[in-house]
Please model this.
Amino acid sequence: MFGKLVRRAARSEPLQAVEAAKAVPPPPPAPWAAESLLGAQAATPAAAEASARERLRAFAFAAADLLLEASVNGTIVFATGNFEQRFGAPADSFIGRTIASLIAPGDQSALAMALAMVPLRGRIAPMILHLSDAARSQASVSAVQVPGPPARLCLSIGPVPLRPADPPGHVEGIQNPMEFAREAEALMRSGRGRMGMIEVQGWQAVKERLPAAEQSRLREGIGALMCDTGPGAQASELAEARYGVLGMEGGGLEALVRRMELLLSRSNARNLARVAGTEIALEAGDMPAATACRVLRYAVSRFTAEGTAAVNALGSAGGLAGILAQAALRTQAVRAALTAHRFRLAFQPVVSLKDRTVHHYEALLRPVATPGMPVHSIQEFVTFAEAVGLSEVLDYAVLEQALVALRAAPSASVAVNVSGLSMQSPAFRDRMFALLEEMRPVIGGPPEGRLLVELTETSEIDDMDAAAATIARLRSIGVPVCLDDFGAGAAAFRYLQQFRIDYVKIDGAFVRAAVSGPRERAMVASMVELAVAAGAQTVAEMVETEEQAALMAELGVHHGQGWLFGRPGGLPGAKR
Model:
């Protein structure tokens, strides 16, 4: 299967980096948000000398070509090493930036989790991450926390030897399209680049008619081609036989499509499948950056779901601006559908893993196909609404319907999704709390009523203070808040640090992967540990087997959601 990035993933962990982590004993747990070193440097020469000794002790055994010191909230205060060759800028220019700025967007969630665990563990064990340099090269990243005050991190970033067992084109699984979209957003913000999308049309026929061994060889051939996309380029499989490519030079996509067509023509798939490709210029133009990012995510979502033809139908020839302009023609129809509640809600149970009793139900949007409705699938409905600025309309309409359902089912509790865009909007906040006040007899009050809010990460929050105020007010009236899809993106770790959260929902990709090996189980265990330290309970989503349920319970997860416990349907106990 194609991997997160179509590059070979190295696994080895340099012994020197491990020894460096052992060289400094882990300190006692530090406060959740420690003071930054910016403006908090050693006040005396003796203190400065002691700080230098500690830094040298931490770095003494590091097998690294980049050395950093940072505050525990991730701000770089010291940098040395081969920054010029890696990033094309001197080491001093990185002081004041964040550690995350050195890491490729697709790996920033892994870094964020590791940083969030430092106050609990005192170190970051060596981990393999992609850097944000032009080549998106892999590196081993490790760190230890040095006692303060203030506490700080000493990080080493060093080379990783390739694992020789990996054959050309070796990959590990389909990348989350949201991670790919974040990579594309980073490229767009740099003011350069294009996003290519390639689809092997007819792959289902290939699967049905060719032997498994021949399918495997064909996939390996495609993998080898996708690995050879040019210096600094990267490619990912976003859905079966649908690939996204970033950083290719002009004409590169057409050449890659021709090479894939040639590969098919020399196989028994030549009469079964063909290759189609399309490109979008990653230029925001006059659009605000946040709007351009939402349009880009919408395009990635449409390609993942329906392929290149769907993207071309969006107006992609005109770039992001062309997609937005064409989408605007359909905005009024979607707004009218939302206002008229031309959708329904399905409710899926969330149960206690201890005794399988239902804790609450999540309200899931189900669009109703009606004349004039330009979108039909769930994901398209949501991403389209966000792209054209209808997130608040969507979230409010769903909240209204969920409260109607609560009134009809007096014994049930319900969770509704609210996007980061809505959570930081003062206008949405005012409308929401006016409605909640009106429905107070239905939802109950503190400490925990019958309504929960799930904060989704489809769009990152820019105004953290406004979002924090909304969350605090919700909790004050007995509406607990849950972080949705925890682990799928880096922003959720920042939210857990800065917001008071009651529940954390672990992304289903981690739940599925946890049964496959100790590394994946350790990641879920770390998420549980982190959530509990923040005072939150955990929910595992997409639990489909008894094996997954038992493992989640063993790892300390409190609640589970998935087909094992019930599929989405009507809200039990509702009066008709």
About this structure: The chain has three domains: 15-158, 177-328, 340-561. DSSP finds 21 helices and 17 strands in the chain. Residues 88 and 133 are 8 Å apart (CA to CA).
